[in-house]
Design a protein that fits this description.
alpha+beta, 5-stranded antiparallel beta sheet, 3-stranded mixed beta sheet, 8 strands, 44% helix, 10% strand, globular
Amino acid sequence: MVDVDVRTELCSCGGVQALVQLLGSEDESVMRSAAWSITVGAADTQTAVEFTKHGALEVLQALSLSHNRSSGFAQVALQALLNNNLPAKYSLTGVLAPTDIISDGFYDCGPARSLCAMKILCLEELAQQAVNDKRPIIVVNALKPLDESYDNSSVKSDLTDDLENSSPARQRVAKLPKQSPPPKPVQDIAPQDNVPSEVMHESLSRIVSDSQLWVYKEETKKLLILKTVKEQLEALGRYVSDKMGGPVQREMVACFSYELALMQLKQKLNSNLIPISQITKGSYIHRALLFKVLADALHLHGTLVRGEYNRAWNEIVVVNNPKGNLLKSTSQCYVVDLMHEPGALLQMSSPEAAMYCYI
């Protein structure tokens, strides 16, 4: 299961279905062996997706919740699958950790209270469904524009204006040479021994592509010229808010009819799948997802948390290290305001953060 060729053969010869069936064995040793094999295989993202397609998540959750058949092996296998299938993890648990890096192919299909009651479909299955009146599935798939003449340095975006009109300290930083090294792509730090990236990208492109999201990522690389992480987070928060409708007063949230705009977008695209950059009027859940996507690309890793009543937010720990003195460094957890005062960092334990996260 560790070898790439072995995993490929397992998926092509029906071994995935067989392992999922063995999870239901009455023989505890057989069930444990199957669960452990899934744990090892789930280290590969594509194999984890195949296990999910054939119902492994539902069976493992049922085993974990069972009083008679509960097993530590099943719980470990369930967690391994979720860690390598972030759409399922976010749908089931409502939380993505700082180590959960969102990459192309991620989608938000909404909360699933229980896998036993709702099967999480893969993106290919969702794409085949007829357009319905349910909430849209938000898809992350940044595709580089086909126009090879695209030049990021020539783009005049609101982010450029934000940097130019910022405080004097920021203006001094903004005059640094433009050849500052960009962040390494997320793919460079994530294991990619499962499927060639160009093959997976081509498969995703046939379902839904999002060249504008690629532009977003290129534009926000400019944030790295800001001196501190707090300044980068604040600027990124303002950028996300601007792309999704701008600030909304607290008392006007109920009148911010983003649902109508999303339904019109579904009809326009004739699909239940909506590329995230197509959303120009987004609420908490859409802004928090876009922030997580762009922050991960900049290595500003934080959480994505789904709350009740269509609330979602991002929590990020900022380390204050004065003059490089590690002994005097402190850390503070913030919630990033993307709705009311875009870019404001709210201390996690403050009343302002509680008001932002909960009704």
